[in-house]
């Protein structure tokens, strides 16, 4: 399919594989290049780090990155400070440290302040395919004088943005769609988006936590009840 150029998503072939499994706790069944998983609606997992600063004058500020113009996906779009897929053989915390160093030059000393902030999950559809996606989210408070530096040539630039400016940024077409939920979750947890200024607050919170694990387990049970194995 890749050689025949049958699907748009395969143009972004990475030579980087994701593990295919029904639920995150299950043993992997096989591996697949990350560009192809959306053709089959396979659950993807990734890691996001919200780098933020409690600025003495501007208040809560968030570091955003602009993706490289040569990226296979979402080139030039604004994104979270650090984000990366969970590839074969890498744990969640290892991926966080690896991506933090490569994308933003986060040192081990800075990463000591890394705080797990749960997950965000959503189901997204585009011309490339289906994306049932779960992101393991981390918050990292950074010193006001720290400036991220990219090391893997995947970032054009970084910008420190106030919380209110961040809201406007994620509503623009210049922001990577699949990173919006992670930023929204951060803004909710820090009280920037709240029931007083967002009338659809309960719905918004629910949509940030689509129960993908339960849904895929139910599908797996239905297959088993009908005499089909996972491999089939």
Structure characterization notes:
With 232 residues, this protein is an alpha+beta fold. The protein is built from six helices and nine strands, in the order ββββββααβββαααα. It has helices spanning 92-104, 108-111, 163-170, 180-189, 201-207, 212-225; strands at 17-20, 30-33, 44-55, 59-67, 78-80, 82-85, 115-126, 129-141, 155-162. The strands form two sheets. Strands 3, 4, 5, 6, 7, 8 and 9 form a seven-stranded mixed sheet that branches. A hairpin with a 3-residue loop joins strand 3 and strand 4 (59-67). The chain is globular. The relative contact order is 0.17.
Mean pLDDT: 93
Number of helices: 6
Helix-strand topology string = EEEEEEHHEEEHHHH
Outline the biggest β-sheet. Answer: 7 strands, mixed
Q: How far apart lie the N and C ends?
A: 20 Å
User: Can you tell me the overall shape?
Assistant: globular
Residue share in helix: 10-25%
Share of β-strand residues: 25-35%
User: Which stretches are low in confidence, meaning pLDDT under 50 for 5 or more residues running?
Assistant: none
Which structural class best describes the helix and strand composition? Answer: alpha+beta
Q: State Rg.
A: 18 Å
Could you tell me the number of beta strands?
Answer: 9
**Oligomeric state:** single chain
């Amino acid at each position: 399919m890749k050689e025949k150029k049958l699907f748009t998503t395969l143009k972004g072939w990475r030579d980087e594989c994701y593990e295919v499994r029904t639920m995150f706790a299950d043993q992997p069944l096989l591996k697949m290049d990350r560009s192809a998983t959306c053709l089959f609606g396979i659950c993807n997992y990734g890691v996001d780090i919200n780098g933020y600063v409690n600025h003495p004058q501007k208040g809560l500020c968030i570091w955003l990155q602009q993706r490289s113009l040569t990226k296979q996906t979402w080139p030039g779009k604004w994104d979270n400070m650090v984000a990366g897929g969970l590839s074969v053989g890498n744990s969640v915390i290892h991926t966080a440290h690896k991506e933090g160093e490569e994308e933003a030059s986060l040192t081990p000393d800075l990463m000591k302040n890394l705080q797990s902030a749960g997950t965000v999950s959503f189901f997204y559809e585009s011309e490339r395919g289906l994306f049932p996606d779960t992101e393991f989210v981390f918050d990292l408070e950074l010193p006001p004088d720290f400036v991220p530096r990219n090391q893997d040539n995947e970032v054009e630039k970084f910008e420190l943005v106030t919380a209110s400016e961040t809201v406007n940024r994620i509503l623009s077409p210049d922001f990577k769609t699949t990173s919006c939920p992670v930023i929204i979750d951060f803004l909710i947890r820090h009280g920037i988006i709240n029931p007083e200024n967002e009338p659809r607050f309960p719905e918004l919170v629910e949509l940030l936590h689509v129960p993908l694990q339960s849904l895929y387990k139910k599908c797996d049970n239905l297959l088993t009840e009908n005499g089909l194995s996972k491999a089939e």
